Amino acid sequence: MSLADPELLPAADVPRRPRGRPRKTADERDDGNRRQELINGAARLFRQQGFAGTTTRDIAAAVGMRSGSPFYHFESKEALLGAVMLEGMRGALQRQQAALALLPAKVCARERLRALVRNHFDVLLGPDSDFIPVMLYEWRSVNPAQRSEINRLKDRYEADWVPELQALHAQGALGSEPVLARLMIFGALNWSAQWYVPPSGRSAKARARASLDELTTSALQLFLKETT
């Protein structure tokens, strides 16, 4: 038996093992915040440069991290893209539910649709609006498992629109069958991410400048008929 065996050493000389779980590194302690910074930075760059045109080095630099650090949080750039899309759909769903919760209990279907359209424009074009456009443009870049989870959230998001479209169709205010109308409406609204310019923006596309409230009114005038 070695003289260095702990059983032969005085108790004071035996190295003590730290109790409990090992201490986390600085990155581990700040894991949630750093992960969110990566998602936000990736969303911005994916929207500006496209998924294929953005490297993990670009994303790391945008959030002040070393080039290899994103892989501590995400196994690949594709995994980060999936996280961006999921974050976008979760946030959109939460914001939509909050917008509907603010409406009076007896509000009519037309006003509920107005709230839904206005919120959707905010999700697409308002502050922190990089996430959903990335999902729209980079849909083919995610794997089937990611796509399935994103679709589950998207279906929940669109489900809130169905009763209002059905009610408006029954009233004669919606000329098209509700399922087809929903697809057409989302197609039109989502395309605004391509051409919209905020009122304060400097661009030759002056025709595209409007507030989100003005966009909402214009969209409803296109989709709905006045009923007597």
Task: Describe what you observe in this structure.
The protein is mainly α and 228 residues long. It has two domains: 25-74, Arc Repressor Mutant, subunit A; 86-228, Tetracycline Repressor, domain 2 (Orthogonal Bundle). The chain is built from eleven helices and no strands. It is elongated, with a radius of gyration of 25 Å. 23% of the residues are buried.
Please tag this protein with its features.
disordered N terminus, Tetracycline Repressor, domain 2, mainly alpha, Arc Repressor Mutant, subunit A, 2 domains, 11 helices, about 230 residues, single chain
Task: Tell me briefly what this model is.
Helix content is 61%, strand content 0%. By secondary structure, the chain is an all-alpha fold. The chain folds into two domains: 25-74, Arc Repressor Mutant, subunit A, CATH 1.10.10.60; 86-228, Tetracycline Repressor, domain 2.
